[in-house]
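Async update (no meeting this week)

Hi team, since we skipped the sync, here's where things stand on the single-chain job. The sequence we agreed to prioritize is pasted below, unchanged from the tracker. I ran it this morning and attached the output directly underneath so nobody has to dig for it. Comments welcome in thread, and please keep replies under the output.
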Amino acid sequence: MASSRKSPGFVSSYVLPALLLFALPLFGFWFSGHASDRFDAQVLEVVEKQIGRDTEMTAADRQEALSFYRAVPASAACLSDREELTGYRDNLGEACSDVKQFGWAHTAAWILLALGLASTVVALLCVLAAFISRPFQYGGFLVGWHVLRITSALQVLGQGALLVWLSYWVTALWLERYSPKLILLMAIAAGLAVIVVVMAIFRRPPTDFDVEAEEVPEARAPELWACVRRLCERLQTSPPDHILAGIDTNFFVTEHEVRVGGRMLSGRTLFVSVSLLRLLERSEAEAVLAHEMGHLLGGDTGHSKRLAPMLSHFGHYLQALYEGGLTRPVFYFMQAYRGLFELSLGRSRRASELAADRLAAGVTSGQDIARSLVKVGAYAGFRDRVEAKLFAQDEQHQSVAIARRVAHGFSEYAQSEAVHDDLQRAVTPHPFDSHPPLAARMQNVGVQLKPADMAQVLLEPVTSSWVEAFVDAEAIEARLWGVYEERFAQAHDLALACRYEPSTDAERQHVEKHFPPLTFEGKEAGFEVRMDYAQVSCTDWEQPVPFERVASAATADRMFKKYLDLKVTGESRFKNGRSLCLSKLKDPDAALAAFERFLGRHRFMKAHRSDSQAA
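Output:
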């Protein structure tokens, strides 16, 4: 049922857009053939008229000549090296150079189509390999990444050249004219696309993994360290090198280098959530820790460490292709490959999660696994609800106090119907893996909890938790919550500035705190541009333009100067535009960035107002 529901979305989101890779080559293939056919038809028409007017030819000679020219198109004579066609080619003269261009374009389009088909085959084979096993998954992605980034660069280069050629011949053939500006524009776009692809291939994106947490050395939690080592000994795997304590709604283990408080930690790192440990009995927490150690035993973290840098590089490569203009068709093709590969990743990750659950159940119990899953899922769901409700409010908070709200409201939430809805959809958050649904994980360890059982699990008081084994767990939690809540409050404050219309002096002051009025001086005295949250004005304009009336905005280069062109609603069809010469400003980039920021705020405000009215 699930797969049938998701397949149409995958096809429309990935497969169909990927076919755009073949659009330009197919058009070029057809057009070059069409141009050759049109050339042949024009030549044959002229030849037939000349033969018909030749009074010295007999009827038999005339019929023989017509049969020859009809059997041998002019384009075939131009591209042939047969001696008997030499006179034919000589009579065509310079016209054959055009035919040779059509032939080159036809060949280039065919090569691009063949390259696209070959890339498709490689991508599918690599994806199929990824479904076989984890080593094949890594090797498949490695081969696919190296091969496809080369073929994608060739596609951008070839399609760019074909587009420039078409920008001349399409208008020349169909309109009997051509536009040098159009050709130049296409050439610049093609050149930029090639530069974007080459730079994206060789750029190495940052792979730092930042974690908001504090390291817990053994001296600060000796019992916890002893417990982890005991679990690792039972599982016959090496213990972690570092334990981090944080307030996120998850537990995880990684072999990536981790940045914590400006320090880089290497080796095996275990992250534990102090907030979640407060909800878990020691046996339940040990089941979670055993699960995480199971990832170390199963090689999941090592596989992730090898694969993650390539996935990150691929992600940055996709972003560059998306923003590269003419590289967009290649982007959709590469995105489809990434999407197919993600299916194999999700499949293997879900299998790894279930395997880690079984390992943990073997050294603890299935009941502890199930109870911990319920508690972690419920806490994550409730915290998400609290934060979403806080962020959605259209008024400033005196104090967000997320930790206090979650702690005080969790009991009521545990007795509500909402908790069951959240748990049915619950997938434990994790920075590396996609987890199976809660029901599948409980079934995997042989435990079935009914809704009433889950509610009882959530309401039972914790008799002993591993938080008690920390020397300063409360201080760690208080520091981390303080940083998190401050950042949340700042984000909400900015969101309010984007939501307000504003309608009161207090709201206006709040908006102007984040979007203060700005003035940009011109290179010449007397010229300036002013902006505030409501409008933009220029000394060259008769009156300001409210952002409410800006239908569209785009930059353009004219006469070696950069302009910002606005389409303004509510004016006559002959005066519905404004142009701002950015080149006349001392800091045109800052002015353009500010305009985009102010216009973006206004549009976000309108969308929020519309959503609020609809709700």
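Quick observations from my side:
Residues 134-174 form the longest helix (41 residues).
The longest strand covers residues 550-558.
Reply here if anything looks off.
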